[in-house]
Amino acid sequence: MLLRDIKTTPGMETLSCRTPEMAEKELWVYLLAYNLIRLLMAQAALLADIIPRQPGFKHTLQLWIVWQKSGRYDIDKIDGLFILIAPQQVGKQPGRMEPLAIKRRPRQFPLFTKPRAITRENIRKNGQPKKLK
Prior knowledge:
The chain is mainly alpha-helical. 51% of the residues lie in helices and 0% in strands.
C-alpha cells in the first residue's frame, strides 16, 4: 500500500478501535477494501487497454461508493462502472513532491471515556474540564 493511497482513503489515518485484536481486524478490513479498489482499477484498465496504475484511486473509490449506493449490484452492469473508471487517468508528474506531514490537529478537549451520567455529575461538582493544550 502506498502512502498517498493511505492519505486518500477515508478513515485510514486513525484507528477507531480500542483493543489490539480489533485494531488488527480493522487493518485487515482496510487492506481488503484497498485491494478491492485496486482490483476494480485493474479490471477497468484491462478493458480500456491501459496500464493498471493509470486510473485514479480516489476517482475509482468515489465511483464505487456512488455505484454501491445506487443499488445496482447486477454483475452484468459492472461494465458500465469500468467504462466510467478508465477515462480518468493519472499521468506521470515529474518533479512533484508531497510533504510527509500529518495535518490532523490535536483536539481541544479530553476524550469522552466515562458514562454520561457520571460526567454530568462531575461537571455539576467541578465545572467543565479545562481545554487541552
